[in-house]
Specification:
By secondary structure, this protein is an alpha/beta fold. The chain has helices at residues 77-83, 103-121, 144-153, 174-178, 202-208, 232-239, 249-267, 273-284, and strands spanning 2-8, 11-17, 22-31, 36-45, 50-51, 60-66, 89-93, 133-142, 161-165, 185-190, 214-219, 288-293, 308-309, 318-319. The protein has a ten-stranded mixed sheet, sandwiched between helices. A two-stranded antiparallel ribbon has the order 1-2. It has a two-stranded antiparallel sheet with strand order 13-14. Strand 13 and strand 14 form a beta hairpin.
Length: 320
Amino acid sequence: MKAILFGVFFSTVTVSFAQLPIGHRQMDFVDASRSRTISCEIYYPGTSAGEDVACATGTFPIIVFGHGYSMGVDSYTNFSDFLVPDGYILVLPSTETGLSPDHEEFGFDLKFINSEIKSEATTNSSFFLYNHFNGHIALSGHSMGCGASFSAAADNTNITTVFNFAAAETNPSAVAAAANISVPVLVVQGENDGVAPPASHQMLMYNALTNSCHYNINILGGGHCYFANSNITCSTAEFFTSPQPTITREEQHDIQFSMLLPYLEWQLKGNLSMASVFEESIQNSSKVSSLFSCPMAEIEEINLIVDVFPNPATSNINIE
């Protein structure tokens, strides 16, 4: 069970969600046009925790996530541990993990997997995805994977949103690609990122965006590597940079996911009420600063009748 705290206007609501078990499967996808095999680690809501278990009842959005420079996908179990139990499918391509990665090929990999995993979800022979995809898919990543996600998202209408963390400029240029993204974008950065300083990386990408809806969240005191789990390659590089993070990795995780969840609930699950919750949280938090431009006129204010049950409750409550 996970407790999520949202501050909405002048009230605070704490809701506990029953958590779904995490299933895992390794899959290889072949891009015949490039004669390239793309291995992926896939984490998904399961009927039980474990390898190759059946997908849980329901439909879920898909997130294709690109790793950082020389970082294995196991560095991002913080994302699978947080997102999957709340009903998200996380796909992590494990290509280009060496010391001389090809940014362009990695971007192609993310774009190909974005398309291929959607096809997998509509194929009745798929052992776990068929009839479990809600139709919404996001491209995401950390550091180098962010730059690749921008490249994969350029001129791509086959996605719902892009969100990423500590984006690093790539070759070909992620900044140039940003100008050709049409879907909503969330750029999250650490104020004290000495590896990919915001002024010369994330802010250039954010300012290059021409789409109608984009957000920038700056985690105060946050670092570059702290978005992921501890990784010796990233930590070693960060140790020799300045400034250094002034918050802990655990604090940064708490902040990044508390800001991310309402955004994903809005963008990938269609919960329009979470749009206002998300904007209120990034504007009123003392732990972040933010910039954004997104028309909210289409989100209509309504009067709600709220039913909470069971009452009294022991461990879980339902809100309708």
